[in-house]
C-alpha cells in the first residue's frame, strides 16, 4: 500500500487516488504553430525513468485536487508531494 | 545435441539421470559477434533461435543481466491466443499460433501446448454485439471464433455465477477454441537449448552498461563482462527498454508498468478453458497442477519493481469472485509481479531504429508471452535482412508520428488504464 501525502488533506492511502502520469510532460503553447514532431513528443514519448519520477495523482476520493508526487519507480518510496501549481525542483 | 525421447529417458533412468548433457553451455563472451541480442527472455531466445535456423546466422550472443527466463517469460499467466480484430495483430498472432502448434516437435522439447480454448465473457447486449463484430473480423482473417449464448457458456463453465440478480449477468461470450496455454518456462528452455546447439552463446549475469555508436552505426555493447563488438544489436528487454533507450539517447512511446499475477492452492480439475471477465479486467485458467492461475489490472503507476501492492490484487480478485464465486473459498498460494513495456497504442514495436544496425523489439504490454515465437521469427527476419517482414510492417516505431496506430482497444495514451 502506498501512502501519499496530499498537500491539502494529509497522508492518505493510495486507494483514494487515481494516477495521472508523468508530470514533466509539457503541452505545446496554445496559438503557436507546432510541428508534428513536437506534438508526437507531447502525446506519445515518455522518459519513464527508473528512479525519481515526478508524476500527477488525482485525489479523486478525497479533495479532488490534482497533486504532484515525487516517487522512486524502483522502490516506490515517495520523497515529496506538491500542489499541482507549485513549482518543483 | 542429445535428442530427447522416450528412449533417451529410459536409457538415462539406468544411470539415475546423472548423465544428461547440459541443456546449454555457459560460455565466456567472445570479442566480437555478428549479432548481439540483449535480453535472454522468451523473445530474445526465440530471436536467436530463428536467426540460426531460418537465416543461418550463428555467430550470435544473447546477453542477459540475470538468468534466462527469469523475467516476464517466467512470470506470465501462460495464455496463448490470437483473438484480435485489427489485421496487423490478427495476422501476426495467427502466424504465431501456427508456430505454437509445431513448437514441441520443432524444439524437441515438450512445451505442453494445450489448445483448450479461451472464452471472453459478455455481460450486456452491447458487449455481445461488439464480440460478434470481433468474431467476424477474426473469421475474415482465418481465425476460429465462436459466439456463445448464455446456455452454451453455462454448459462449458457451469461454475460461473449464473444466479439471478447478479451485478454483471452473463449474456454469452466469444470463444476462440484454438487458443490455450503452454508451459512458459519450457518455452524459454526449449529455445535456449536449440539456439545453443546451433552455436549461439548464451551469456548470463552480464549487464549492459552502454553502447558504442560511431557515425550513426552501432559497433558494440559495453557490458559488466567487458566490451563486446557487434555488427548488429537487437533489444528484447521488455520492461527494461526505457533504461537501455536512455543510454542510447532515445525517448520511446513506452512506459514501464507493474502487473501482478497469482495462483491459488491446487484443486481438482474443474475449469477446462481460459476465461476472461467482461466487465472488468480479470482472467483465469487452471494449471495442470490444479492451481487457478489468475491476473488482471496493472498496479497503475510507473514502476520497475517486480513486486506489486495489495489494493490492486484485492480489486482484481473481487472481479474474480464476481465471475467465479467459488474462488473465495480458495487460499492463495503465490503472488508475483513483472514489469511491462506498455506502448501508447497497446500494440508492440518490432522495427529498425535511426541507428544503423540497432533493432528494437518492445511494447508488448501484457501480451508478450503468446507472441514469443512470432516475435522471435519476425525480429530475426528484421535483423538478418535489415528490413521488416510484412507480418511486422505495421509494428513500426514511426507509426506514432504518422498516426498509423494499431489501437486494438482504443484506450488512448493512458497506458496504466487497462
Brief summary:
The complex is a heterodimer of chains A (89) and B (418). Chain A is mainly beta. Chain A contains 1 helix and 6 strands.
Give an overview in words.
The complex is a heterodimer of chains A (89) and B (418). By secondary structure, chain A is mainly beta. Chain A has a domain at 1-24 and 52-89: Folate-binding fold (2-Layer Sandwich). Chain A has one helix and six strands; from the N terminus they run E-E-E-H-E-E-E. Chain A has a four-stranded antiparallel β-sheet, with no helix packed on it. Chain A has a two-stranded antiparallel ribbon with strand order 1-2. The longest helix of chain A has 8 residues, at 36-43. Chain A is globular, with a radius of gyration of 14 Å. Chain B has helices at 6-14, 42-55, 87-107, 125-140, 150-156, 184-197, 241-247, 310-323, 372-385, 399-402, and strands at residues 32-38, 60-63, 79-80, 118-122, 146-149, 172-176, 180-181, 201-203, 208-214, 217-223, 226-235, 254-264, 274-276, 282-286, 292-302, 332-343, 349-352, 358-362. In chain B, strands 1, 2, 8, 9, 10, 11, 17 and 18 form an eight-stranded mixed β-sheet that branches. Chain B has an eight-stranded mixed β-sheet with strand order 5-6-4-13-14-15-12-16. In chain B, strand 9 (208-214) and strand 10 (217-223) form a beta hairpin. In chain B, helix 2 packs parallel to helix 6, helix 2 packs across helix 9 and helix 3 packs across helix 9 (372-385). Chains A and B meet through strand 3 and helix 1 of A and helix 7, strand 12 and strand 15 of B.
Topology:
The complex is a heterodimer of chains A (89) and B (418).
Chain A: E1 3-6, E2 10-13, E3 18-22, H1 36-43, E4 52-58, E5 66-72, E6 78-83
Antiparallel strand pairs in A: 1-2, 3-4, 4-5, 5-6
Chain B: H1 6-14, E1 32-38, H2 42-55, E2 60-63, E3 79-80, H3 87-107, E4 118-122, H4 125-140, E5 146-149, H5 150-156, E6 172-176, E7 180-181, H6 184-197, E8 201-203, E9 208-214, E10 217-223, E11 226-235, H7 241-247, E12 254-264, E13 274-276, E14 282-286, E15 292-302, H8 310-323, E16 332-343, E17 349-352, E18 358-362, H9 372-385, H10 399-402
Parallel strand pairs in B: 1-2, 1-11, 2-8, 4-13, 11-18
Antiparallel strand pairs in B: 3-7, 4-6, 5-6, 9-10, 10-11, 12-15, 12-16, 13-14, 14-15, 17-18
Amino acid at each position: 500500500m502506498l501512502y501519499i501525502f496530499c498537500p491539502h488533506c494529509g497522508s492518505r492511502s493510495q486507494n483514494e487516488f487515481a494516477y495521472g502520469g508523468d508530470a514533466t510532460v509539457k503541452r505545446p503553447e496554445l496559438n503557436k504553430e507546432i510541428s508534428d514532431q513536437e506534438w508526437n513528443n507531447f502525446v506519445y514519448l515518455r522518459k519513464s525513468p527508473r528512479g525519481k519520477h515526478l508524476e500527477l495523482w488525482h485525489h479523486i476520493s478525497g479533495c479532488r485536487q490534482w497533486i504532484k508526487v515525487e516517487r522512486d519507480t524502483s522502490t516506490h518510496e515517495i520523497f515529496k508531494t506538491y500542489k499541482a501549481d507549485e513549482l518543483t525542483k | 545435441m542429445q535428442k530427447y525421447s522416450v528412449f533417451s529417458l529410459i536409457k538415462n533412468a539406468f544411470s539415475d539421470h546423472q548423465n544428461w548433457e547440459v541443456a546449454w553451455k555457459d560460455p565466456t563472451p567472445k570479442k566480437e559477434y555478428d549479432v548481439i541480442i540483449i535480453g535472454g527472455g522468451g523473445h530474445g531466445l526465440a530471436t536467436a533461435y530463428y536467426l540460426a535456423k531460418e537465416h543461418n546466422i550463428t555467430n550470435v550472443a544473447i546477453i542477459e543481466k540475470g538468468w534466462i527466463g527469469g523475467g516476464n517469460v517466467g512470470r506470465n499467466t501462460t495464455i496463448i491466443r490470437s483473438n484480435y480484430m485489427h489485421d496487423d495483430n490478427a495476422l501476426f498472432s495467427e502466424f504465431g499460433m501456427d508456430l505454437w502448434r509445431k513448437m514441441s516437435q520443432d524444439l524437441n522439447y515438450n512445451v505442453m501446448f494445450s489448445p483448450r480454448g479461451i472464452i471472453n465473457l459478455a455481460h450486456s447486449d452491447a458487449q455481445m454485439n461488439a464480440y460478434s463484430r470481433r468474431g467476424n473480423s477474426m473469421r475474415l482473417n482465418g481465425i476460429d471464433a465462436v459466439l456463445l449464448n448464455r446456455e452454451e457458456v453455462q454448459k462449458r463453465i457451469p461454475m460461473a455465477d449464473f444466479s439471478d440478480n447478479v451485478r454483471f449477468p452473463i449474456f454469452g461470450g466469444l470463444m476462440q477454441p484454438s487458443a490455450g496455454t503452454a508451459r512458459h518456462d519450457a518455452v524459454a528452455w526449449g529455445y535456449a537449448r536449440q539456439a545453443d546447439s546451433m552455436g549461439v552463446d548464451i551469456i548470463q549475469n552480464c549487464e549492459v552498461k552502454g553502447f558504442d555508436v560511431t557515425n550513426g552505426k552501432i559497433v558494440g555493447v559495453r557490458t559488466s563482462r567487458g566490451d563486446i563488438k557487434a555488427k548488429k544489436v537487437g533489444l528484447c528487454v521488455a520492461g527494461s527498454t526505457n533504461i537501455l533507450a536512455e543510454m542510447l539517447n532515445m525517448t520511446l512511446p513506452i512506459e514501464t508498468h507493474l502487473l501482478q499475477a497469482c495462483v491459488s492452492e491446487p484443486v481438482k480439475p474443474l475449469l477446462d478453458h481460459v476465461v476472461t471477465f467482461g466487465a472488468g479486467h480479470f482472467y483465469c485458467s487452471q494449471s495442470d497442477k490444479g492451481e487457478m492461475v489468475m491476473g488482471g489490472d496493472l498496479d497503475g503507476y510507473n514502476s520497475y519493481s517486480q513486486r506489486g501492492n495489495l489494493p490492486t490484487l484485492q480489486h482484481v480478485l473481487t472481479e474474480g469472485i464476481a465471475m467465479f464465486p467459488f474462488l473465495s473459498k480458495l487460499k492463495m498460494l503465490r503472488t508475483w509481479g513483472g514489469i511491462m513495456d506498455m506502448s501508447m497504442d497497446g500494440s508492440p514495436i518490432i522495427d529498425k531504429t535511426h541507428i544503423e544496425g540497432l533493432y528494437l523489439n518492445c511494447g508488448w504490454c501484457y501480451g508478450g508471452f503468446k507472441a514469443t515465437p512470432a516475435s522471435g521469427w519476425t525480429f530475426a527476419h528484421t535483423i538478418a535482412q535489415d528490413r521488416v517482414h510484412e507480418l511486422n510492417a505495421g509494428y513500426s516505431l514511426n507509426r506514432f508520428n504518422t498516426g498509423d496506430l494499431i489501437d486494438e482497444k482504443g484506450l488512448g495514451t493512458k497506458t496504466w488504464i487497462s
